[in-house]
Automatic annotation (TrEMBL):
<feature type="transmembrane region" description="Helical">
    <location>
        <begin position="30"/>
        <end position="53"/>
    </location>
</feature>
<feature type="transmembrane region" description="Helical">
    <location>
        <begin position="383"/>
        <end position="402"/>
    </location>
</feature>
<feature type="transmembrane region" description="Helical">
    <location>
        <begin position="65"/>
        <end position="87"/>
    </location>
</feature>
<feature type="transmembrane region" description="Helical">
    <location>
        <begin position="226"/>
        <end position="242"/>
    </location>
</feature>
<feature type="transmembrane region" description="Helical">
    <location>
        <begin position="176"/>
        <end position="196"/>
    </location>
</feature>
<feature type="transmembrane region" description="Helical">
    <location>
        <begin position="152"/>
        <end position="170"/>
    </location>
</feature>
<feature type="transmembrane region" description="Helical">
    <location>
        <begin position="445"/>
        <end position="462"/>
    </location>
</feature>
<keyword id="KW-0812">Transmembrane</keyword>
<keyword id="KW-0472">Membrane</keyword>
<feature type="transmembrane region" description="Helical">
    <location>
        <begin position="7"/>
        <end position="24"/>
    </location>
</feature>
<protein>
    <recommendedName>
        <fullName>Oligosaccharide repeat unit polymerase</fullName>
    </recommendedName>
</protein>
<feature type="transmembrane region" description="Helical">
    <location>
        <begin position="414"/>
        <end position="433"/>
    </location>
</feature>
<keyword id="KW-1133">Transmembrane helix</keyword>
<feature type="transmembrane region" description="Helical">
    <location>
        <begin position="247"/>
        <end position="264"/>
    </location>
</feature>
Amino acid sequence: MQNNNPTRLILTLYFPILIAYLLINSPIISYFVAWFGSLFIFYTTILSPAAIIKTDLPIHKQIMRPIFLTQLIFAGFMCTTSIFYFMDHLGYRYLTEVNYGAQFKESEQTALIASCQRMSLLAHTALVTGILLVQKNNISIKSEKTFDNDDFLIWLSIIVFGIGSLAQKVSGLSQISLPLTLIGISCAAVLFVKGFNTKNIKYLGIGATIFMLNFLHASLSGYKEPIIINIIVIACVFFPYYKKLILYLAIPVTYILLYFLPTYNNTVRQSWSGQISAEEAQSQAFENLNSNNEEQIEETNWGFLTRRLSEIEMFTQFVDYVPSHHPFYEWEIIGNSLEGLIPRVFWPSKPNMETLSMERVYDAGVANKMSAVSAKTRPIVDAYLSFGIPGVFFFMLLYGMLVQHLSDKSEEIFGGYELGCVIMFNSIFQGLWRGNNFEFMFNNIFWGYVIMWILFALLRTIKVLKPTFD
């Protein structure tokens, strides 16, 4: 970690927030200051000479640590994607087509959007503050691999992926199945890269097979997130070895995903009705992605960019609802989340957390009870609904401290960055990349922590890991 002053760095991060709030009476300017504020934080904490980054590994070999990956995904999703919705609000489409009637006219909605963007920037700053406050440069490694090679990753991948896949078929075990399946996929990705680099056919074959099977399954799901997550994981594990290639591919791949994926998935979702199979829907989706459907693709994608990629419209609806029409929830959401930790086997009449969390969505008019949409809130929204702007700062500060602690602890007990951070932390706690509503997030963190220690005990028991002796 560089000998930079963390206090000075942290205080510097709050300048954009201060300026954005000073310009509160000019909502358009205030919005753009807050939006660019997140870009300023990205630069200051990752690329600038003032950045405080661990020195045990070169920067390009530690990009899956929270200061890089979690920050970029969380703040990228919550803070920077709002630009599409805001430009649409100002009368622009794809930054070129202009509705002159709406161009740069301020309204009550403009002020709401700017308010939400300022809170998003505050959340981003608090997240990074929490990470920097608890980040350790030197982690005391408690374990090391028993074997000199990476054959154990093959068995770990097969075992956890198999258990996770079986658990998916058992009602009530989804909390266990998802992190285990993700560990298997991460192991496969690491094996894939190692096999590719060393020309080890065994690693390459097993890793590529598991990873590609999962990617195929994701492409048939009708959801965008599994596809995007698979691409992020494989890009991150390849990055230390092919950083220039990954950087060159980043923009065109992102463009392809944002341009084609919404239309592709909308077509695949036809299989949900059961009238056609997922494979047939996939074939039809590829047929739709041609130049003849350019207008339809652009229409679908602009709707995705403005109202689904970014959730700021939903955020504005909650801010308009609370506290004007409903008092702050205070400890109600947190209390429900803590109750959700109790296994249903011990409390058969436990409320359904999905139903409970959707009640505030329906009450605020964000979604209709008759629709099939699941518009669950995100951590920033639940923090605001609970205690307003102070709640956003406090909970996101804790969020940053928590993700960094979990990452450091994973590296400590699993013997370093690759197994601890890349495979365990970013699989078990992958939900923290973007966050979820409090009810689901509390549950994921608690049971993820339990799974982490169980896996540690298992690997010690079967002699994959052994204690280090200082």
